[in-house]
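To fix ideas, we now present one chain and its tokenised fold:
***
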Amino acid sequence: MSKLQAPRGTRDLYPKDCAWRNFMLDAWRRVSIRNGFEEVDGPIFEHLDLYKIKSGDGIVSELFHFEDRGGRGLAIRPEFTPTLARMVAAKANALPRPIKWFCVPNLCRAERPQRGRLREFWQWNADLMGLEGATADAECIFTVVDLLQELGLEPSHVRMKISHRQTVRDILLKLGVPEEKLLGAFDLLDRRDKMEPEAFTEAASKLGMEPERVERFEQMCRFKYPCGELDQLREQTGISDLADLEQLDAQLQAFGIADWCEYDLGIVRGLAYYTGTVFEVHEASGALRAMAGGGRYDQLVELFGGPSIPAVGFGMGDVVLSEVLIDKGLMPEDVSPRPDVYLIAKSDAGAQAVTPLAAKLRLAGVHARYSYKATRNVGKLLKDAATARSRFALMLDDDATTGKAELKNMETGDQQMINIKDLQTLIAES
């Protein structure tokens, strides 16, 4: 029988892989909490209808779904937003406003694996509900930027691309796109970077625009406007009413993140439930798919039987984020937990002292390891301590019977004889 491998589009996480995953989840949690978000979670599988309500029947082909013994349709969660909306709708009147929730769920999607996209992944979601206006939009954008800076990224590495569905709608109507074809135009914009220019032009002409307007449409979708330079956007589009973007622009500058942001009318987030500001984070060269995306969705909770609640949020997956950090040389080489001390027995008396000492240290909260090998080769055991990235090595000899041992600082190489009872204090103070 051939060896079984992990299913296509999934990953086996060995210790270092798990350490990176936990490092990333910890960063997501730290940033979320300091920005005022509270953690929530939901079931790993949901009613299939939950996703149909949000995205239509076509979503089924993208899901891992099944029937339970009662014949009820269920699906492994491909995203968290429908669960979030269901949870808010269930207790909307009892929840204090604004609602600021985040989660870091494990998700699955039945799609073709490729670079930057797997079938199983972890995703950071953060949502702010119950607050209208640009301040909420800007706070979500700031939270994303805060995470990017936390991981060592800079504005030269990535760009926060921002647009507004109403502004794009006004432009499309001005260019001659009929009202009934607006969603098709949004979808086309969402796919533009994956299309050849000729294919894009052909598809745009089917929206009802005259050839010269198709060209104008394509030009405007590719313009980038710096934060703080809305006059350029106004001049290029002929749209004078940019009140929503002006308010957002002021807030982005107030948050001090203007250098990270630019306006890109080609960003529309094809999902129909977005109602206002939309944004995506892209690696600066454009070589990868979006690292994060989100926007305002003021009508989603109503779809699940709840009241009308303004809402804005975003999601960031671990796969593209990892690719970007690797490409930029920012992926930590090893984020595995470091032992505080590695216990080494240099004699029979030392060996007898190892187990009770390890137990005492661990119960006191000290990360203590020791070699399970019996050897007099201290050099070999010191190499084991170095491989484990231990901060200290404690060498126990016959002196252990008198409460003394030799402590080596594995970073500086300094060695000293210490009282074993002082070890915990020395570790804490270093």
